[in-house]
Amino acid sequence: MAFAPLSHFATDARNIRLVATDMDGTLTQNGKFTTELLQALADLASAGIDVLIVTGRSAGWVSGLTNYLPIAGAIAENGGLFYHSGCETPVALTAIPDKTRHRTKLAQCFQQLQTEVPQIRESSDNCFRITDWTFDVSGLNTVQLQRLAELCQIQGWGFTYSNVQCHIKPLGQDKAIGLLQVLHQYYPHLTLEQVVTVGDSPNDESLFDASKFPLSVGVANVLHYTEQLAHQPMYITDAAEGIGFCELAQFLIQASQQI
Known about the structure:
alpha/beta, three-stranded antiparallel beta sheet, 12 strands, globular
């Protein structure tokens, strides 16, 4: 698939009022937030463009982000929970009636995966999670990732992975479903043509689904995963990772000033 450059996004970009973006590999640069990113987020807010982070990271991590970053809110655990800026209590996007039993079942699934792929290790932030279970993606090849997805499906779980982690998650829990719930509840005044979704890896695939989100952007490192993505972004930045997001932010701010 030939990705269109941001210059082709010019007309639609003028109407964007909300950016829904992945975090790791999309906002980060070599795993870190940069001063340029923090300035870009502040500039977007000043231009009247809200930013929602839509990440696979844990509830524990995300609850802190919404307090310290100039964003409107963040969705954690690939659509599991929503933290609205200024509100300490998360909104459950996936119903978990019995959290203890849910975590026990996730742990059992993980143990089953370890019998076939012994090297997988629980992620350091897994203890801060509510809806899903994560282990590190490092060292796993495409064949192993496909097999892990099949094993999760057999046990009645969903599976996805990013450039950082693999996620065992409830069926039907993904970034697109969670984001659509948040847009319906908190942004009923916006149309989907006023929202742009941004990402870089397979766990952002649902955000690239044009039937749900007509406008999407991949930062340049998404090119590493083109063969694994059934849905691919409409546009692509020149730069990778956080520098690519800053490129998009500046583009959106300039476009909004042309109205």
